[in-house]
Amino acid sequence: MARTPSNMLPLGTKAPQFTLYDTVSGTNQSLDDLKGLKGTVIMFICNHCPFVKHVNTELSKIAKDFTSKGINWVAISSNDVENYPEDNPNLMKEMAINEGFIFPYLYDQTQKVAKDYDAACTPDFYLFDDDLKLVYRGQLDDSRPGNDIPVTGKDLRDALNALLNNSPISDNQKPSIGCNIKWKNA
User: Fold this and answer.
1) Pairing between strand 28-30 and 19-22?
2) In what order do the strands lie in the sheet with 134-138?
3) DSSP symbol at 181
4) Is the per-residue pLDDT at 52 higher than 60?
5) pTM across the whole model
6) Domains of the chain, residue spans
7) Which of 9, 85, 82 is CA-nearest to residue 44?
8) CATH fold of 4-180, please?
9) Of 80, 89, 124, 171, which has the fewest Cβ atoms less than 10 A away?
């Protein structure tokens, strides 16, 4: 199992714009359509990665806990589906329904969005404020498959609570660890 860390996009970076296909609704969705009133979480995930499978239940919980507080959630899969067919859009929709995702699960077919966000792994998390400026990036929490640490979402939850309370968000942000994004051959 590969252990690729996040690239840690610089804090303060403005969220790159995108319009992508939402595998759940069957419509194209833009960042402007999906932006939250108080903040927006963008996460790069995929169907087959054991690191993502490990946190899917918590992703559903944390989204349900914070959506009503003005935080919107966007999941994006940028993997090469030709070489990783488990990550194709039809199976993305199936996974989103089975996992109870209340957020769109977008397909980045060209991989441009992953490159624009400097995403490196799945899962990779980015929290933007109401002006779409990056205030947190990195891990959900310290749990990884097989390390016996419970999945709580602590790191992202702490950042979300600080954002909502207008409190400083700690600069001590740990990279996420997961499977590398499956890039298409050039």
Assistant:
1) antiparallel
2) 28-30, 19-22, 105-107, 71-77, 39-44, 124-129, 134-138
3) P
4) yes
5) 0.96
6) 4-180
7) 9
8) Glutaredoxin (3.40.30)
9) 171
Q: Which helix (H) or strand (E) holds 76?
A: strand 71-77
The two tokens of residue 132 are 């779409």
Q: What is the residue type of 53?
A: K
pLDDT digits (tens, 9 = 90+) for 133-146: 999 999 999 999 99
Nearest to 44 by CA among 101, 130, 99, 108: 108
> Is 2's pLDDT higher than 90?
no
Cα(18)–Cα(6) distance, rounded to whole angstroms? 20
Element spanning 32, H or E? helix 31-34
Per-residue model confidence as pLDDT tens digits over 76-87: 999 999 999 999
β-pair partners for 28 = 21
pLDDT-derived band at 1 (thresholds 50, 70, 90) equals low
Q: Are 123 and 178 in contact (CB under 8 A)?
A: yes
Name the residue type at position 19. T
Nearby residues of 36 by Cβ (< 8 Å), 6 or more positions away: 70, 71, 72, 130
Specify the pLDDT at position 186.
59
Length of the chain: 186
Q: Is pLDDT of 23 > 70?
A: yes
Q: Torsions phi, psi of 34, nearest 5?
A: -100, -10
How far from 50 is each of 1, 73, 133, 163, CA to CA, in Å?
A: 8, 21, 30, 29
